[in-house]
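Reminder to self: tokens first, then the designed residues, so the page reads top to bottom the way the pipeline ran.
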């Protein structure tokens, strides 16, 4: 028997989505603010309506069936659409105004944030946005910013963090530098080249040594506390520099070194104050940033 899509209940689908994401009825109930019996009834009603089994209990947790995994793909799309609808409706409220300060590293603030701010302004023209380019998480604690984009999850209990995406970093040198010095073919050969520091040279040496790149402090000939400056030094042919793969691969004057071998995955966290739950303007910007930074977003 065919299923009438008009009879599908979004509340039931939402309960299914939360259960699939948490692999737990109790976790899903907490996430949605429901009692566990209510959530269980909604999932059961969806299974009855669809005439399929969506979950199997494995130990203390739940696992999706094949039918559940297939339904989850489409339900995630529905959830994302519902989120965009809610953000659009919120943005149209006449009382959504004022300033929101976003802090990010200078690289991120320079290259990624401007086009996201364009989208924020389209959705919420009553807002004004200020970008604070800094690598210091303490600016949130000092209330110098409302939202931070960082690569380390904060430990302060007064902050709320959401993992936005896993990004990829690689190592690059300019075409001019490689023509002059040769292209390294192994991690050991990287130690014979000039390097550009970004921040602490000692920390860079310790990290690179831990991934079998045997450089020493002597390898660093130039550097800066600024990621933008360090990258420009690399573009000027001064040596090897790390960079987000989206930025590095888009620059035709630069070449990725040891492609497919030397790659670093790192998290991108969205961080804000707990008042995100009570401030419509901060919640709106936080959600737009999360959407843009996700794997399906514009970054």
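Designed residues (299 positions):
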């Amino acid at each position: 028997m065919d299923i009438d899509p008009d009879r599908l209940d979004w509340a039931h689908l939402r309960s299914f989505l939360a259960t699939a994401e948490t692999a737990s009825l109790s976790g899903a109930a907490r996430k949605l603010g429901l009692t566990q019996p209510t959530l269980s009834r909604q999932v059961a009603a969806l299974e009855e309506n669809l005439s399929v089994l969506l979950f199997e209990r494995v130990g203390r947790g739940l696992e999706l069936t094949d039918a559940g995994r297939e339904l989850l793909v489409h339900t995630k799309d529905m959830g994302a659409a519902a989120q965009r609808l809610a953000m659009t409706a919120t943005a149209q409220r006449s009382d959504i105004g004022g300033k929101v300060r976003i802090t990010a590293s200078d690289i991120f603030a320079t290259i990624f944030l401007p086009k996201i701010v364009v989208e924020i302004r389209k959705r919420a023209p009553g807002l004004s946005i200020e970008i604070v380019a800094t690598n210091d998480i303490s600016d949130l604690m000092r209330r110098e910013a409302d939202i931070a984009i960082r690569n380390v999850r904060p430990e302060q209990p007064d902050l709320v963090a959401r993992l936005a995406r896993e990004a990829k970093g690689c190592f690059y040198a300019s075409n001019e530098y490689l023509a002059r010095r040769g292209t390294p073919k192994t991690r050991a050969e990287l130690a014979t080249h000039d390097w550009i520091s970004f921040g602490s040279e000692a920390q860079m040496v310790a990290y690179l040594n831990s991934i079998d790149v045997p450089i020493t402090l002597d390898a660093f000939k130039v550097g800066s506390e600024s990621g933008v400056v360090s990258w420009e030094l690399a573009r000027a042919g001064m040596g090897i520099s790390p960079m987000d793969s989206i930025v590095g691969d888009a620059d035709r004057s630069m070449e990725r070194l040891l492609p497919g071998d030397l790659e670093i995955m790192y998290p991108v966290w969205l961080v804000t104050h707990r008042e995100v739950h009570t401030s419509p303007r901060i919640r709106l910007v936080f959600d737009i940033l999360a959407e843009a930074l996700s794997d399906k977003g514009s970054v």
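The longest strand covers residues 159-174.
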